[in-house]
Amino acid sequence: MELTGAQALIKSLESQGVEVIFGLPGGAILPVYDPIIDSSIRHVLVRHEQGAGHAAEGYAQVTGRPGVAMVTSGPAATNIVTPLANAYMDSTPLVVVTGQVARGSIGTDAFQEVDTTGVTAGVTKHNWLVTDPERIVQVVAEAFHVATTGRPGPVLIDFPKDVANARLTWHEPSPVDLPGYRPAGPPDPASIAEAADLVLSARRPVCYVGGGVVKSGASVALAELVELTGIPVTTTLMARGAFPDSHPLSLGMPGMHGTYAAVTAMQRADLLLALGSRFDDRVTGRVDAFAPGARVVHVDVDRAEIGKVRRADVAVVADCRLALEALVAELRRRAREQPDALEPGRLAAWVEQLAGFKERFPLTYDEAAEGGSRAAGSLKPQQVIEELRDATPEDTILVSGVGQHQMWASQFWRFEHPRTWVNSGGLGTMGFAVPAAIGAKVGRPDRMVWAVDGDGCFQMTAQELVTASAERIPVKIAILNNAYLGMVRQWQQMFYEERYSEVYLSPDLPDYVGWAEAMGCVGLRVATPEEVRPAIEKANDVEDRPVVIDFRIDSMEQVFPMVPAGSSNDEIVVHPSQRALLEQDRR
Amino acid sequence: MSPPNAPGPGAAPVVPLAGQAGSGPARPSRAAARPAYHLVSLLVENRAGVLVRVSGLFARRGFNIYSLAVAPTDDPRFSRISIVVDVESAPLEQVVAQLDKLVNVVRIDELHPLDARQAELLLVTVGADAVSRAQVIQLAEVFGAKVVDVGAEALTLRFASVPEALDDFEEVLRPYGIRAIQRTGRIALPKLGKSVEGP
């Protein structure tokens, strides 16, 4: 069968099982948009290419399948660099196709020409410039293979216009043969045996669970490990939902805004089981003071993560799920040989100590002032998150942007299932939430999808709600409107003597309700605690269009606990109401 | 971006070493200041852009390249890149692990300097007037360098040897005035009979 390069590309995407492309056409990619009309693949027309990339990320994060975005050359390619960098940091599988000027024009500064593979080399797992039409089918196969195997990540295919217009004979791809690409698979049994030794001898162990557990589908294996060993669990920002928050051994999130129990457990641990986590600076605080008494078993599919930040006593370079299953099997075998090896009492003192931390230093916030509860601006963001959590189904997908609202969402939601939390962790991309929520809803139309966004974030990508309205993608957005770039303001408050520099945004400009309505959404405004629940319930009932709720929250609310940047995790600052108790504890 | 299959006997240094080229004011002997180094030999796919991926990785991760040489192997599908990495800038395991993630990097050999045969080539134009010409030619003969160009006031010499001999040669020529110098960067292969630690 003879076909064009463009048709071969679309047919290749179809045979990879692609069901949706997020994209926006333009000159160099024009030929590829023609066969889309005849394709089974749904195309979601975004309003800005950054939105295409983040939507593809949201889709990938909730489904576990690669997200696909397609845009044209030049400015479109540079607009999608941010999502590529975001996906690279958070190990999200993406396949991005960019148009490119015709081969003969490459290097001539042609209209809308950018060296896309050069620009994106540092933020992709790999990229390809297709210079031979005969390679199209194989490149697509290679791209999906690289994006989805090993440590997942974004890849990019740069597709010159004349390659799209070339004619070729259709052929199935050959088996992928990339001699330099060797993703890790099952663990080395010797490393598992060593890990088991450390698990059995530890008396203050903690599971330090990262995004790798979600990506590899290791939640069941993790639950088995915890049932078997009784080891408490912390879940990082990228791992929220990998282990149920309701489990008695769940300590919550570690790190800069983690719970006191999670942060302190890691500081006092004698063993960290680092599972698909990467000792990010937001988790470790000052590295040389992080978990000073802990030996480290580091499980990661990416060998370069082992020892990058913290030396591992035992390195397990493997897929997290396979490693956890092997570890569980090995520990079961040991327990058969030596029945008291995993006797629960061995960790009793430790578990009791951590339960005490949880009880005495829970996440907390000041209730809205008595009598002032009807006053505008007295609404507490944490209360909004709690009410949202309580008024939505347990399997609701929660999406967030970046900033204070993201931390409150992670802290005060209750995550029970993997792939119910979508956020920008490593790169910290403001504006992620709206387009990512759209992608999440496309990937899981059966689920309710709520985005918690900040007013600063919302203004960066809100135009994608036009996409959502036009495509009937009923996402729901809760803006925690504190009229500030809140996280920056909090740092200026704490570390710059309350000298507020360029952080004020105004609660009324823009008019979020008017803006939402102009974009085809239902717009609601909530200013008092009493209005929160009815507004959420009203939003939950809207199924045919997006909803935006403008929650007017307390402008000066801060995120606690907090480990100041560059400090040891031992210097964690808890909520003001707990400080006297903590002082007492420290003495 | 430079294709790795550039013609010639080898080698194109991409990252200039401060103070490497040109005659200039006297500076500390390179031999005395030479840092400890890692020697990494990469077998890479011979495709456009591979060199950019490798050098870009070094830049991105803050690893310093001391020298770099690249040329195709006997199998035209592959090129070999020899890189000397500043040992201060990064632990070798991290450099190798990051390089290993590049899809076009097929094989990585970490060569311990004592277990490797190393070589480097230099071209140098050195002042040689009627008075000094005979001395310069004599020095070249002692080192086994070749005179490849002769001018009224200068000679251009070619010298290939182990990198340390190049350092020495450079030192002895310096008093005559080095007008221009180009070194290729270190290339290396494992010594025969020595096991090589690959990825």
Structure description:
The complex is a heterodimer of chains A (587) and B (199). Chain A is an alpha/beta fold and 587 residues long. Chain A has 24 helices and 20 strands. A six-stranded parallel sheet of chain A has the order 3-2-4-5-7-6, with helices on both faces. In chain A, strand 19, helix 23 (529-540) and strand 20 (547-552) form a beta-alpha-beta unit. The longest helix of chain A has 18 residues, at 320-337. Chain A starts with a strand and ends with a helix. Chain B has 199 residues and is of the alpha+beta class. Chain B contains five helices and nine strands, in the order αβαββαββαββαββ. Chain B has helices at 30-33, 50-61, 92-100, 133-143, 163-173; strands spanning 37-45, 65-72, 78-86, 105-111, 116-127, 146-150, 154-161, 178-183, 187-190. In chain B, strands 5, 6, 7, 8 and 9 form a five-stranded antiparallel sheet that branches. The longest helix of chain B has 12 residues, at 50-61. Chains A and B meet through loops of A and helix 2, helix 3 and strand 4 of B.
For this entry, give a set of tags.
heterodimer, A: about 575 residues, alpha/beta, Rossmann fold, 24 helices, B: about 200 residues, alpha+beta, Alpha-Beta Plaits, 2 domains, 4-stranded antiparallel sheet, 5 helices, 9 strands, about 35% strand, disordered N terminus
